[in-house]
Amino acid sequence: MDLHHYKPEEVKITSDNTKITINAKHEEKQDNHGFVSREITRIYKLPENVDPSSISSTMDAHGFLNIRVQKKALEEPKETVIPVTFK
User: Fold this and answer.
1) Which pLDDT tens digit goes with each residue over 22-41?
2) Which of 53, 54, 21, 66 is nearest to 39 (CA)?
3) What's phi and psi for 66, nearest 5 deg?
4) To the nearest whole number, what is the mean pLDDT of the chain?
5) Which Pfam family is one of those matched by this entry (predicted)?
6) Of the candidates 30, 53, 55, which has an alpha carbon nearest to the alpha carbon of residue 44?
């Protein structure tokens, strides 16, 4: 996600285990044309097969935010014993 207008401390990422919310906001700043303030919010639904506790983020020097999340570990197939009944 391109957030080059924001500093890392102006970006807040939250998760409720079903979605990730990214909010970036900076107060009024002066630029070449006057004053500007910006705010953006993006909400992304998490796939069901990911581990919400593994979410991490990085922002590079160009302002690109990367979100990483790992897939849930596959459960080993469980063997179930099925009794045989005689009638």
Assistant:
1) 999 988 888 788 888 899 99
2) 21
3) -120, 130
4) 90
5) HSP20
6) 55
